[in-house]
Amino acid sequence: MFAAVIHGPGDVRYEERPDPVIVEPTDAVVRTVAACVCGSDLWRYRGIAPVPRPTPIGHEYCGVVEAVGDAVTTVKPGDFVVGGFLHSDNTCPVCRKGAHANCLHGGGYAGCQAEKIRIPNADGTLVATPSMPDDDLIPSILTLSDVMCTGWHAAVSARVGPGTSVAVVGDGAVGLCAVLAAAQLGASTVIAMSRHEERQKVALAFGASHIVAERGDAGSTAVRELTEGIGADCVLECVGTESARAQAIGCVRDGGNLGLVGLPHGDLPVNDLFWRNVGIKGGPAHCRAYLPQLLELVLARTINPGLVFDLELPLAAIGEAYAAMDQRRAIKSLVRP
Question: Spelled out in words, what is the top-level CATH class assigned to the domain 2-146+287-336?
Answer without folding.
Answer: alpha beta
